[in-house]
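Form 7-S
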Amino acid sequence: MRSKKIPLVVNDSIYPSIATKGWNLVFRLGFYLKETVDSPVLQTAVADVRERFPFFFVNIRKGVFNCFFTYNNHIADIVEKETSYCRPFDLKDLSKPNIRIVYNKNLGGAIIS
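Output:
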């Protein structure tokens, strides 16, 4: 994938400045499906989404004077039956992108930081 840095404008730099390991803003996109979720099909779909919408698979990094996004080549966490949907991300862990896919039977969601 890309290793390009995407700079944030000045107003977008507020979030990385106030986010900590124990507290960061997350939001959840939830959806109901008519059929139950098939895990291998979901992994294929997430890989397709990563190619089409790479801006969901990024990490926030702090530079000397500004913050920026970097693309992350790793697949998002795909978790079944998570109890704490909106738990915070570890923003210093650059091994995974700041997106998590959660599913349970016919209920799904994407948690994004």
